Amino acid sequence: MKNTFLLFLASAAFFISSCGYRPGYGTFLDRYSSLSVPYVIGDLDGALTAELVRAVASSLTFDHSSTEGELLLIVKLLDVEDENIGFRYEKVQGKKYKRSIIPVETRLTATAEITVVNAATGCSLIPPARVTAFYDFDHEYNATEHDSNTFSLGQLSDADAAFAAARVPLNRILVQKIIEYIYGISYTQD
User: Fold this and answer.
1) Pick from 62, 51, 57, 188: nearest CA to 126
2) Cβ–Cβ under 8 Å, residues 183 and 126
3) What is the dihedral sign for C-alpha 80, 50, 53, 60?
4) Does pTM surpass 0.85?
5) 116-129: average pLDDT
6) What integer best gives the mean pLDDT of the chain?
7) Residue 52 pLDDT class (50, 70, 90 cuts)
8) What pLDDT band is residue 21 in, cutting at 50, 70 and 90?
9) Higher pLDDT residue, 98 or 78?
10) How far apart are the first and last CA of the chain?
């Protein structure tokens, strides 16, 4: 009798596990296998959207689908601000300094609102949350040593080029925080 019962339990365990049966869903987002990332609202050049798609596609949790995902990751870029945080006196010629102070270090701050939506029902699975990232960078205030018009031939000043270049790491940091938030939510809600 005891051997028959053990044989029954062993065979039941074998048949149940062979069909792919699992006793639950596990974490919150384990119920879904694919995620679509629509264009980020407020991303004028598409760089943040491209970085977000790259991060989702390289994650092991979801298959990225451009249009047919079970989940939609809705991201709104609310604000990108710059704040001057480092200054120096302006040089005239040689080693003389003017009394004017110019910015040489800036902090870019980006804030995004994110939510995950079930694509089939349109219901939000997590409430909207705000994620903020910042990036500090140095730049030269004036591209020339003389007080000439730096835009006379259409060139950008060093500060403008630095602002454009700083958006790349800022987008990476913001995307990393978005991904960490989503995966963090997946382990706290069931």
Assistant:
1) 188
2) no
3) negative
4) no
5) 90
6) 81
7) very high
8) very low
9) 78
10) 41
The pLDDT score that the predictor gives to residue 13 is 63
Q: Per the structure block, which two tokens stand in for 70?
A: 């079970």
Residue given tokens 């870019």 in the structure block: 108
Top CATH class, 24-141+158-183: alpha beta
In sequence order, what are the residues at sequence separation of 6 or more whose Cβ sits closer than 8 angstroms to the Cβ of residue 21?
none
pLDDT digits (tens, 9 = 90+) for 59-73: 877 888 888 899 999
Residue with tokens 């995966």: 183
Secondary structure in 3-state letters for the chain: CHHHHHHHHHHHHHHHHHCCCCCCCCCHHHHCCEEECCCCECCCCCHHHHHHHHHHHHCCCCEECCCCCCEEEEEEEEEEEEEEEEEEEEECCCCCEEEEEEEEEEEEEEEEEEEEEECCCCCECCCCEEEEEEEEEECCCCCCCCCCCCCCCCCCCHHHHHHHHHHHHHHHHHHHHHHHHHHHHHHHCC
More confident residue, 171 or 14: 171
